[in-house]
Amino acid sequence: MSSFKIIFLVAKIILTLSITAASAKDLNNIVAAKVNDHIISAQDVLNVINTLPQNIKKKPLPEIYPRVVNELINQYLITKQAYNEKLDLDQKVINLVKKSQDKILAKYWLNNYIKNEIKEEKIKTFYNNYLKSFQTFKEANASHILVKNNEEARAIIKKINNKAKFSELAKTHSTGPSGKNGGNLGWFGPGQMVKEFEQATFSLEKGEISQEPVKTKFGFHIIKLNDIRDAKPKKLEEIKQNIIDKITKISLSNLENEIRNNQKIKIINFEDIVKKVNK
């Protein structure tokens, strides 16, 4: 198979799969490179790519692929050299390998544990409980213009009252990230914004703009209430990841209590460790 075809094949695999995703093909059986009789598989390449920093992952996959494969080749050849020099029999190396092995085993076991905890039935049960306990509340859709001082805010309010367009003023004057969108913040409910901003927003009528600058820790806001509505329960698809995160958090907390139960655990004070190190 030509190198171009290999790059295309592996790039396609990486685009469509994550390291935890189910696959119709076993990536361990797809050859990415060979060194004598040693095979570097597409899975080996994928494993490395999944550990790369985000700024490198953003690069085109055909550009990343050869660099990763060459690193894996170098790693294999250096490892072979280490075996030739009997480093695998060195006690320091044996201890390090044992620690790495323990970490891998713990991580693998924990991944399986989490998979079992976030099965579809449990997610649906969690969602059904959410539906049963849901109580409606008011949600606001608001836009704002954020500036640094009170005088600037008042000058903008004056322009708005003189028929200047709110969204255009937000684009040219607002220091907040929503400025480029005309100041629109989308829908939000109680507790999602800082107290002063929330109180001012929910005191407005639909379509009304605050006539006094609203001061928060971020600066001075001019707020426009675009709309207000009664909140409805979110669809499962919208909050599924949040449910998974919550189940995972609860499960890990329960697991910690369970595995530590009846264990003799002693943690040495940090200051005592420092004293021993500095002796």
Description:
With 279 residues, the chain is of the alpha+beta class. Among the domains are: 3-85, no CATH class; 137-230, Chitinase A, domain 3 (Roll). It has helices at 3-16, 42-49, 54-57, 61-84, 91-117, 120-133, 150-161, 166-173, 195-202, 236-260, 270-278, and strands at residues 31-35, 38-41, 138-147, 184-188, 214-216, 219-230. The strands form 2 sheets. A 4-stranded antiparallel β-sheet has the order 4-3-6-5, with helices on both faces. Strands 1-2 form a two-stranded antiparallel ribbon. A hairpin with a 2-residue loop joins strand 1 and strand 2. Helix 2 (42-49) packs across helix 4 (61-84) and helix 6 (120-133) packs across helix 10 (236-260). The radius of gyration is 29 Å and the shape is elongated. Mean pLDDT is 90; it is low at 1-24.
Strand segment tally: 6
CATH level-two architecture of the domain at 137-230 = Roll
Which band does the percent of strand residues land in? Answer: 5-15%
SSE pattern: HEEHHHHHEHHEHEEHH
Which residue ranges are poorly predicted, with pLDDT under 50 across at least 5 consecutive positions? 1-24
What does the overall shape look like?
elongated
Question: Helix coverage percent of residues?
Answer: 40-55%
The helix count comes to 11
**First-last Cα distance:** 62 Å
CATH class of the domain at 137-230: Alpha Beta
How would you classify the helix and strand content by structural class?
alpha+beta
Mean pLDDT over the full residue set: 90
Please compute the radius of gyration using only Cα atoms: 29 Å
CATH topology of the domain at 137-230: Chitinase A, domain 3
The biggest beta sheet reads: 4 strands, antiparallel
Biggest sheet: strand arrangement: 4-3-6-5
